[in-house]
Amino acid sequence: MSAALLCLALAACFDIREEVWVRADGSGRAELRYAVPETAALLAGGPQGLERHIRELIESQPPLKLEKIEVISARGETRIAVDISTDSMLSLLDLKESESMRELPSAAEDLMGNFDVRIHGLDIDFTRMVRVKEALGLAALGVSREQREIRRLSYVIHLPKPPKESNAPRTENNGRTLIWDHSLNEAMQGPLSIRFRARMPLPRWVVPTFCAVAFAAVFASLRLWRRLLRGPR
Fold this sequence. Notes:
The protein is an alpha+beta fold. 34% of the residues lie in helices and 34% in strands.
């Protein structure tokens, strides 16, 4: 599996589009789209073998749900479409500690990126560093200047509210959609930095639990107040 992922990582930078939606209740989904040379997919076992490897990787992560997967080869190119979802975006913070993630080759880790997620009160600081040049290694020598300008890496994040801070070059949807879009040539000049600070989405159970606790606290306060008015018996 590691060898297959390494072959994919060495060619996967030809075209990448990752789009993530974070909902207000803390759940979310992602649409991942990759276009790689067909030869890279053949080294990973062809479309069927590559699909099997992706399924195994996602199934090894309990927080993730695989909604869709397509691996199609045509005209010398293999296109990969993967849709995933999760009930809690915060649960994804533990993925890098899993055994399957630790088994990834360094090239795949550089392509996936190093994540640094920190929680400050009700805010979350998110940073992702993608090292395309390191992931490609010597394979970068085989990419022409024209292809470096044509091929793109796009990362899009939809937040329920505009972030407090962000280094996104472009935003849409009144600031709630953050877009990092770079040519392969730009991505190879140095690490791609994806960073924002936003209010942390609350999981589904927080609001009803808070309401129940608040009601219990008010009810207890009223009982205590009535006893104080009555005075000692």
